[in-house]
Amino acid sequence: MNEEFYQKRVEMVKRYRSVGYIKSEIVEKAMLTVPREEFVVPELKLYAYSDQPIPIPGDGRQTISAPYMYPLTYEFLKLKKDKKFLEIGAGSGYGAALAREIVGEKGLVVAIEINPLTYEFAKKNLAKTGYTDIKLILGDGSLGFSEYAPYDSICITAASPDVPPPLLEQLNNPGKIILPIGGSSIFGQELVLVEKDFDGRIKKRDLMSVAYVPLIGKYGWKT
Predict the structure, then answer these.
(1) SS3 state at 195
(2) Residues 44, 36: contact at Cβ < 8 Å?
(3) Contact between 115 and 59 (Cβ < 8 Å)
(4) Does position 61 have pLDDT exceeding 70, yes or no?
(5) CB proximity list for 127: less than 8 A, separation 6 or greater
(6) Which residues 6+ apart lie within 8 Å of 4 measured at CB?
(7) 84, part of any domain
(8) What is the pTM of this model?
(9) pLDDT tens digits along 5-54
(10) Residue 171 domain-assigned?
(11) Is 192 within the bounds of a domain?
(12) What is the percentage of the chain residues whose pLDDT exceeds 90?
C-alpha cells in the first residue's frame, strides 16, 4: 500500500464526513478501502484525490467523476450489503469497486460500458485491484442487462433525456435509480432519485444540479 496515497484517502474521507457527503459507516469504509489512484491514468495519479473529474481513455469525453459524487450517490441509493447493483457507465471501474465493497461477497455488481477503450481501461483497473467478481459488460447501458435483473439499485453516470424504460423494468419492487436528467450539453442537468415502491408505483425527486457527459444508446442521446 502506498502510504502517501492512503493518507490522501483518509483526508478525503474526513473532508466528506465533515460536510455530510458521507453519512454511513459502510460508505466510509468503502471510500477508505478502494485505491482511487489505481483508477486513473498513471500521469494523472497525483490528482486522484482532488475534488474534480479526471479524463480517462475513451472518445475524449469520458472522465472519472469527482470523488464526492460517489458517496453522495450511494448514500441517496442507501446501497447495502447483499444487494444487487447495476451501474450504467462503468468509466474507470472506480464506482463499481466502491459498490462491490458495500454490497459484499453475497451481493452482486454489474457494470456496463459502451465505449470499447473505456471498457478495457475499467477491465484492467478492476483486475489489478482484485475486483474480479464484478460483472463488467461491453454494451448499451440504456438497455440495462436483464440476465441478472431485478436490481435493488441502479446508478446511471451519464445524463439521459429521461429514465430509460428497460431500467425501470429491471428495477426491483422496491428499488431506487439515481441518474442525471437533462440536455446533452453539461448545462441544465438535474440529479434525480427515482423510487419504485412495493406495488411498482414510481416517484421522482430532484436532488441537485450536476454536469455529466451525455448517455449514449437507444434510450440516451444520439451520437
Answers:
(1) strand
(2) no
(3) yes
(4) yes
(5) none
(6) none
(7) yes
(8) 0.95
(9) 999 999 999 999 999 999 999 999 999 999 999 999 999 999 999 999 99
(10) yes
(11) yes
(12) 92
Residue (of 169, 176, 174, 113) closest to 146 by Cα position: 169
Question: Are 78 and 72 contacting, i.e. CB atoms less than 8 angstroms apart?
Answer: no
Q: Could you report the per-residue pLDDT of 161-219, keeping only the tens digit for each?
A: 999 999 999 999 999 999 999 976 667 799 999 999 999 999 999 999 998 989 999 99
Tell me which residue range forms the domain holding 118. Answer: 3-210
Rounded CA separation 40/54 (Å): 7
65 is annotated as an active-site residue:
yes
Dist. CA 89–CA 119, nearest whole Å: 9
Task: Report in angstroms the alpha-carbon separations of 2 from 36, 127, 172.
Answer: 12, 18, 40
State the catalytic residue, choosing from 24, 65, 153, 209. 65
Total number of domains constituting the chain: 1
Q: Which of 193, 184, 192 is nearest to 212 (CA)?
A: 184
Task: Please indicate, yes or no, if residue 219 is contained in any of the structural domains.
Answer: no
Strands (E) located in the chain: 54-55, 63-64, 84-88, 108-113, 135-138, 151-156, 171-181, 189-196, 202-210
CATH of residue 68: 3.40.50.150
